[in-house]
Amino acid sequence: MIKYDVLIIGGGVTGAAIARELSQYKLTVGLLEKEEELAFGVSKSNSGIIHPGTQNPPDSLKGRLCVEGNRLVREICKELGVHFKEVGELIVAFNDEETSRLLKLKEEGELLGVPDLKIVDSHWLRKNEPNLNDKAVAALYAPTAGIISPYRLVYDLAENAAKNGVEFHISAKAETIAYSPDEEHRFIVNTPKGAFNARYIINAAGLFADNVSKMVGVDDFTIHPRKGEEFLLDKKREHITKHLLFPLPTKTSKGILVIKTADGNPMIGPTAEDVDDKDDLSTSNEGLAKVLEGVKKMLPTVNENDIIAYFAGLRPASGHDFIIRHEDKVPGFVNVVGIQSPGLTSAPAIALMVLDILKNNGLPLKKKFVFHKHRRRSEHLFEDPVSRIKNLIDMDAAYGDIICRCEMVSEKEVSDAIDRGATTLDGIKFRTRAQAGRCHGGFCTTRLMKILAEKTGKPLTSVTKRGCGSEIVKKDRVDG
Amino acid sequence: MVERDLVIVGGGPAGMAAAVSAYENGVKDILLLERDQHLGGILNQCIHPGFGIDYFNEILTGPEYADRFIKKTESIPQIDVSLQSFAVHLENDKTLTYIKPGKLEIVRPKTIIMATGCRERTREMIHIPGTRPSGVFPAGLAQKLINIEGLLPGKDAVIVGSGDIGLIMARRFLLEGARVKAVIEIQKETRGLKRNVVQCVEDFGTPLYYGHKVSDIYGKDRVEKIRVVKVDENFADVPGSEFEIECDTVLISVGLIPENELIEMAGVAVDKSTNSPVSEELNKTSIPGLFVCGNSYKVYDIVDSVSRDSVIAGRLAAEYLKGLK
Fold it and tell me: How far is B42 from B138, CA to CA, in rounded Å?
């Protein structure tokens, strides 16, 4: 049986950030992911916003971790070569009542330590956000808001953690956990990939964190999936806004937003709807109608014909705040659950908090002599100027071999994604954006399948969209 | 920076016809860029007959039709064909950047003909709600998988939309031993050629539902079923008319859109609803010396019309060049 000092359950951004943080210490660390690839759960539908910390109650844990995470993530992005853009956000008010709520948001944000908050007037808005509805009277401007690719952050954290010794086990769903308090390695986690023995367990299982916690008898919380439908616009509309645009928040969500993304394509959404089914990722006509209605209040010119993709994600909500705690009834078991928004931003701060919890509960943390904190940046032609593209092609001819025409993704980028861990077409898409553009893989799917099959030494019929059961084709045509 | 008299973007039927025509009208320095590894464009995967009736007075398959133009193009030394060459940037002074394996090239042509063809409208553009499992294909991708790669996308298919590619694929699936459960068309009549409705659907007894739409796709990893609903003359759902069809594959064939992102980048006005260039005269754009032809100018029903349109574009480019001297 494989033994670890710490075993993390869940390969989303929370698990990956904790894994990378732990990888600088003299510990054996493993991570279990139930899907075929990391970031295939909650994280894959994240909108990629690095929040400034506003819209959180001043006494909340998530508010504190968000502000700290916004600061920490910048350094991590530099170390890992992840593209972070500080675009700033505007929370927009359309009347006097809303303006007075902006003042309250500003005050609460400042209590949390959100830097440089400013109320801007309609004159400022006309000048700096020309497509915004001219009925807007004021906005709270938070310059420290930014954007990032949520999946690339997960993949890059994990790649770096793996380089520093963390072992990742995919398609390894935790099915049962046996607990023997007298043993040093007191937990045995059974999975389809075998049993794992651990001294400490971090439960970062997202939507399924309540199921995992129940396995050790801690059942005082429930994860309630809250669905969000999002709609992605054509990259041609990249400059439709300069900032992230927010309405005033409601009780359950931050409202329908206009989101700039690290990939260029603007996104509109999300809805917020409590659902029962943790696998319900369907989108609906009602969701689209709601999003368009909400967005047109802010951006009247938004055009439905510019929508090129849509998807739904589930927020793993449990009450209004994060739950991050050592379970004293089950020494060694740490719950990191209910990580809904702003979970992506908070992840680096959550990781530090978890380290403290482990230390306070008997795990000695000694730094390794050598920690490789840097990772070679993945190249993306779409973010590069022509001169840089020319250099890359001179360096490696395969950068000049374009596979995905809509998003300009080269053979080299696709090969790199596979070398760095992609095993499915969705995995390639999340890492490179191939198939994510306006033609939806109409032109590039066959070449991607061939590259993936060739590099992994498997037949074309075994290529999947996102793991077993989602094979792209049924069989060879010729085999009858 | 390389200077050229004429650069043509796209080596499908439009680009080749334009190149040959430009040459025949006196242009002697032509660069033809094709992103694929062969000339011929989408014709290469259209192995069914029915091409060339109008242009050649013969019934040809897609590859045969393409081959006539490929031979002609390759026999003219003044047409410099560059394969695996992908145009990435176009400026309003017609400076064009393209890349190919191992090379980034910036050209400054006196005139340009864009023959970039079209792409399929997707499931996302018609907003079919539901899940996003594997098994939902643009019909043209399914055609490529079967005809070029020798792979069968699925065994129980439903075809959404009665565009020509969808109709052709209905027959193709049946010939490959798969089942076609239905063709669902939201309009009251087909948007494809009548002959394709008869030969590809009716002759095989495949159910074709006019005035119906797919209202939901179900399935976690792979398509499991779809829900269909009848629509009234305003395309609103008729309550109580819903039914479900079990299937593992959904082919989307709901029309084509001209590919004009490059000229849009250069500042050419493009119609928001059709994606065709806003144009006073056939093949012309708001930038003098920048021409658009074939399916990127407007989506034609048959390739024969694409060839005729592109011959005119080749001549216009030649006349433009003469006017510069």
Answer: 14
